[in-house]
Design a protein that fits this description.
- It is found in: Cytoplasm.
- Its EC number is 6.1.1.10.
- InterPro entries: aa-tRNA-synth_I_CS, Anticodon_Met, Met-tRNA_ligase_1, Met-tRNA_synth, Methionyl/Leucyl_tRNA_Synth, MetRS_core, MetRS_Zn, NA-bd_OB-fold.
- With about 675 residues, this protein is α+β, with helices and mostly antiparallel strands.
- The protein has 23 helices and 23 strands.
- Helix 5 packs across helix 10 and helix 12 crosses helix 13.
- The longest helix has 28 residues.
- The protein starts with 9 loop residues before the first strand and ends with a strand.
Length: about 675
């Protein structure tokens, strides 16, 4: 989860032409939030993992030291890193005085690390040192939290701390700050946790992380920082400070909703009608089960408190851990550049969702799940059904959905309906309990049932030998295809939408009964079926494994080294002069010497090393880049290259030097 009440307000459930969704009396109203991604880098895949009246609230994280640190690394302002600034903490400005007025805030002097070289107090993430937790001793622990053991820290607790900017040792100085008095809110907080953790079915890892905080004893928590980038504190004494991101970040959910609709209180101050579900990684649990609830309780007002929290462990990458700050792993833009379809990424990440313990992303595992589960199970079932119906009359049904009377008397179909009915019940139970991985696994089991049903029925024989039974089998199977499209839509929406399954079915009106899959209504004909998934080959897997090995910085260095290697090779290549005399024609059957083969005549070719100033995808060709190149002339040159297959766009944009051949 990222940090910011100044998150970019993007309400995913509305457009300008669509009125905002609001709670409806008598219906189940669900409010959902998830991690606000940091803007200090592209999100990696570990970030990225019944009908209700629901809205989903999210945004982008712009405040905090992660953004400021990245800005310092790139020698620009935090505002430039964020591209655009959204000051949407208007409602937050009201919330803070309410908490302060109820005496849940206090002032105190604390010791903080100060760097004399940089002449500034060091924010949590601007300090690195050895973790003080016994048995950990991680040498790159941050000032706010150890990535290895997960322990929340104060910068002064680090052993041998270093300023992340200049690598010098900071000293301790006194500074005044505001604190949230968690001890005074303990009784209210513990009552909320004990009741809601049961009613909302909190995941075990969420309960454990919360109880660990309570067991250690609640202490006053500092909620201000000596930074320039962040939400300014609306208090005269502290006007030069900003709020600690984990105090203001969850309030960003409220602010984003306020940007979505002026009636935001109908969602956030309506606990009798609204259920709040929150999704996040395990390291952010205490901020949502302790800090945020304490802030709301401290106002004394009637807020919609979190009912259910779904927590994930870490998704690790090959031999290490995904890290946005260190550039390790496969990032969102990397996934796009692989050309592997979105629904494949979504399926793999959700089947591999670390709900109970850490899980591991490997390219071999992605290949196995695509080829054996999506292609051989789901894709195979749907393709067999649709392709057979689409065959011309005499071999199939000429794309016409067959009539199938008396389906209830067909024993194999009755058995299928009973089995599928039980699986649908299991699916709904898993989804209600936010066990998404189990829900997806159950849906895929229905596809397996369909494959077994087709195989046992031997429909290809029934077509000639028992046409009525064949019609029952194919119409029932088609109903199963539509059922799968519905059940898989939360996981793979692009798989179920009008561009794929629904397009093939060309449905008009559907009515499926759980125990009788043969009863449904479709438009008369289906569309032309096409393969839904493509095999991922061994050589492709190895290519991706090598391409995305190491960190982003190491990949850039490798690209530069490869370019330098090519340049060195060209230096040793014999090049003929442009005005040299033409060689005499050699007799037929003569052979070229190795020296002649190495010779390149480039009378109209200018070879230079240039610096890439800007790179972007060609608007009309997926395999080409358009680049602005500085080759030492007064103005840059615009060139087109076919490097898309070899160098990702983000690496093109940071490459220092590449060799260019200009033809004139």
């Amino acid at each position: 989860m990222g940090d910011s009440a100044a998150a970019t307000a993007t309400a995913t459930t509305t457009t300008k032409a669509t009125p905002p969704t609001l709670p409806v009396a008598g219906r189940r109203n669900v409010l959902i939030t998830s991690a606000l991604p940091y803007v200090n880098n592209v999100p990696h895949l570990g970030n990225i993992i019944g009908w209700y009246n629901a809205i989903y609230i999210c945004g982008t994280d712009e405040y905090g030291t992660a953004t400021e640190t990245k800005a310092m690394e790139e020698n620009c302002s935090p505002k430039e890193i964020c591209d655009k600034y959204h000051a949407i903490h208007k409602e937050f400005a009201k919330l803070f005085p309410q908490t302060d007025g109820n005496n849940w805030l206090s002032e105190n002097t604390m010791q903080q690390l100060y760097c004399d070289t940089c002449q500034r107090f060091l924010a949590d993430r601007l300090v690195e040192g050895t973790c003080p937790t016994p048995g950990c001793n991680y040498e790159s622990a941050r000032g706010d939290q150890c990535e290895k053991c997960g322990k929340l820290l104060n910068p002064t607790e680090l052993i041998d701390p270093k300023c992340k900017v200049c690598r010098n040792t900071p000293r301790i100085r006194d500074t005044d700050h505001l604190f949230l008095e968690l001890p005074l809110l303990r009784e209210k907080l513990e009552k909320y946790i004990s009741e809601m953790s049961v009613a909302g079915g909190w995941s075990q890892n969420a309960i454990q992380a919360t109880n660990a905080w309570l067991k250690e004893g609640l202490k006053p928590r500092c909620i201000t920082r000596d930074l320039k980038w962040g939400v300014p504190v609306p208090h005269e004494k502290y006007k030069d400070k900003v709020f600690y991101v984990w105090f203001d970040a969850p309030i960003g959910y409220i602010s984003i909703t306020a940007c979505y609709t002026p009636d935001w209180e109908k969602w956030w101050k309506n606990p009798d009608m609204v259920e709040l579900y929150q999704f996040m990684g395990k390291d952010n649990v205490p901020f949502h089960t302790v800090m945020f609830p304490s802030t709301l309780l401290g106002t004394g007002e009637k807020w919609t408190m979190m009912k259910t929290i779904s927590v994930t462990e870490y998704l690790n990458y090959e031999a290490g851990k995904f890290s946005k700050s260190k550039g390790i792993g496969v990032f969102g833009n990397d996934a796009k550049d692989t050309k592997i379809p979105t629904e494949v990424w979504r399926y793999y990440l959700l089947t591999n969702r670390p709900e109970v313990s850490d899980t591991l992303f490997t390219w071999a595992d992605l290949q196995a799940k695509l080829n054996s589960e999506l292609l051989s199970n789901l894709g195979n079932f749907i393709n067999r059904v649709l392709s057979f119906i689409a065959k011309p009359a005499g071999a199939g049904y000429d794309s016409t959905i067959p009539d199938a009377p008396n389906a209830e008397s067909h024993q194999l179909t009755k058995t299928l309906a009973e089995n599928v009915g039980k699986l649908v019940d299991q699916y709904l139970d898993a989804m209600e309990k936010v066990k998404l991985k189990q829900g997806l696994k159950t849906a895929m089991s229905i596809s397996s049932e369909g494959n077994g049903y087709l195989q046992e029925s031997q429909f290809w024989k029934l077509y000639k030998e028992d046409p009525s039974s064949c019609a029952i089998v194919m119409k029932t199977s088609l109903g199963l295809v539509y059922l799968l499209a519905c059940l898989l839509e939360p996981f793979m929406p692009s798989f179920s939408n009008e561009k794929s399954i629904s397009h093939f079915l060309m449905r008009k009106e559907i009515s499926i009964k759980q125990k009788d899959l043969g009863i449904f209504y479709l438009r008369h004909r289906i569309g032309k079926p096409e393969p839904l998934f493509k095999e991922l080959k061994d050589e492709e897997v190895e290519f991706f494994r090598q391409k995305f090995a190491g960190s982003q910085a190491e990949r850039v260095l490798k690209a530069e080294a490869d370019a330098k290697k090519v340049a060195e090779q060209l230096k040793t290549t014999k090049i003929s002069e442009g005005n040299s005399k033409k060689e005499k024609t050699k007799p037929a059957g003569s052979t070229k010497t190795k020296a002649a083969e190495a010779e390149v005549t480039i009378s109209r070719l200018d070879i230079r090393v240039g610096r890439i100033k800007k790179a972007q995808k060609h608007p009309d060709a997926d395999s080409l880049y358009v680049e602005e190149i500085d080759v030492g002339e007064e103005s840059t040159r615009t060139v087109v290259s076919g490097l898309v297959k070899y160098i990702p766009l983000e690496e093109m944009q940071v490459c220092s030097l590449l060799l260019f051949l200009f033809y004139f």
